[in-house]
Amino acid sequence: MEVKNVKGTHDIIGEEANAYTSVESLMKTVAELYAYHEVRPPVLEHSEVFIRGVGESSDVVRKEMYDFLDKGGRSLTLRPEFTAGIMRLVVQNKLYATNELPIKLYYLGPVFRYERPQLGRYRQFNQFGVESIGHASPTNDVDVIALAYTILESLGLENLTLKINTLGDEESRNSYRDALKKYFASHIDNMCEDCKSRFELNPLRILDCKVEEDRPIINKAPRIKDYLSSSSKERFVKVLSLLDTIGIKYEIDESLVRGLDYYSETVFEFHYQSQNGNNYGAIGAGGHYSNLMKELGGPEYPGIGFSLGVERIVSVLKDDNLLPDISSKLDLYVMPMCECVHGFAESVACELRASGYVTDMCYDQTKLGNMFKRATNKNAKYAVIIGEDEMKTNKLVLKDLETQEQKTLSVEEAIEFLDNEFDECHCEDHECECGCHDGHCSCHKGE
Ligand code: HAM
């Protein structure tokens, strides 16, 4: 019986894999411009990290964690998000003691949630994100939002919607929670089972309910803005005015509360509507947190961060034809004419690769005609033909597969010739369709 992939997971193959690489590398480059440094926490954490960090009342912890007992009886979890694990990493490695604050970290990798798979919703997906830890200023919030915005705009997503709200400080949330409890007390019997347990655990979570029949009740619930402390109100006004100053447009969304329990003050989400109308949900989201580090045994340092959903971003880029031309290019295809020259052919291939040329090789013994067919199928620009004569004279035959011109050259001469042919690319100044790579341009339009 054929073995299939696990429901909610997906294989990333060929040009799509190239698209992920190019999107992820742009994300890293922009984060580094904002002076963030990469960290790679493990995928596996003690379940406690997420139970204490993300919170017992969140759907993520209540219903979506891939948790299990390992052979030693420890309760472990495949990370359902990065932020709590990053905080564990910062506390355990005492990064707060040795670094200037804020500690600015970025991360990329797979995340696991047992959700119902649908458009843009997977059980294993990739997140790229940042956390800026140890600084509570509104300027830090805005710098983090600006970083997410810059990444998304640099990818070509221009009609972005940034939804923003504040959840206030602890004092604001406590009085808001009381108000929600009072309001929902008279409605809860008519709401879904999930809401009934949310009512007991944390009535704020009721606002995340996706059950259509519950929406009319939820829509009339009290709003956080009426329960904000004066310092939280002031803080939010400052964040919005800083966003105005740097020209980032936003929509205040009073219903935005986010599904993870650690948030306080600023919360935000990025949305993008593909031209074909596909709705993948938020393409990225984040917010400020005050108690997360303390909850995980560290000092009471605040932080702010965001995570971008790489799958959703690649999907909207694909829908709107915004993915860069990332088809794989093959510069050279090495063709050994007989078994006895395979060693020499392999060493020639290694030298060509060391000079920066994408080089593939025929690994079995077949007719020259078959090898040419393979080279053409692989879209190679040149064939490198090596027979016994070439091996004896330490040479190769280089054949341009478009013009059919060929020359006999030493490896050094071949590399010099190729360096001239694939001259430095000037594509940034000129329209170029050659799909140049590594600074090598094969179209010469820019010269
Ligand atoms: P989140 O909103 O749970 O936040 O996830 C962030 C992003 O991950 C979402 O906006 C979405 O693009 C993507 N995403 C979430 N679930 C799925 C799914 N099932 N399939 C595909 N993509 C998905 C967090 O994870 C927080 N840790 C963000 C954060 C960082 N807050 C502070 N720092």
Please outline the helices and strands.
Layout: H1 14-33, E1 37-38, E2 44-46, H2 47-53, H3 59-63, E3 66-69, E4 75-78, H4 83-92, H5 95-98, E5 103-112, E6 124-133, H6 138-154, E7 160-166, H7 170-185, H8 193-201, H9 215-219, H10 230-245, E8 251-252, E9 263-272, E10 284-289, H11 292-295, E11 303-309, H12 310-319, E12 330-336, H13 342-354, E13 359-361, H14 368-377, E14 380-386, H15 388-393, E15 395-400, E16 406-410, H16 411-421
Parallel strand pairs: 1-5, 7-8, 12-13, 12-14
Antiparallel strand pairs: 2-4, 3-4, 5-6, 6-11, 7-9, 9-10, 10-11, 14-15, 15-16
Helix pairs in contact: 1-6, 2-4, 6-10
The structure holds histidyl-adenosine monophosphate.
Could you describe the 3D structure shown?
The chain has 447 residues and is α+β, with helices and mostly antiparallel strands. It folds into two domains: 14-169 and 229-319, BirA Bifunctional Protein, domain 2; 330-429, Anticodon-binding domain (Rossmann fold, 3-Layer(aba) Sandwich). It is built from 16 helices and 16 strands. It has helices at residues 14-33, 47-53, 59-63, 83-92, 95-98, 138-154, 170-185, 193-201, 215-219, 230-245, 292-295, 310-319, 342-354, 368-377, 388-393, 411-421, and strands at 37-38, 44-46, 66-69, 75-78, 103-112, 124-133, 160-166, 251-252, 263-272, 284-289, 303-309, 330-336, 359-361, 380-386, 395-400, 406-410. The chain has an eight-stranded mixed β-sheet with strand order 1-5-6-11-10-9-7-8. A five-stranded mixed β-sheet has the order 13-12-14-15-16, with helices on both faces. It has a three-stranded antiparallel β-sheet with strand order 2-4-3. Helix 13 (342-354) links the parallel strand 12 (330-336) and strand 13 (359-361). Helix 6 (138-154) packs parallel to helix 10. It is elongated. 37% of the residues are buried. The model is unreliable at 442-447 (pLDDT under 50). Histidyl-adenosine monophosphate is lined by residues 81-83, 113, 115, 120-122, 125, 127, 129, 131, 260, 282-287, 305-307, 309, 311-312.
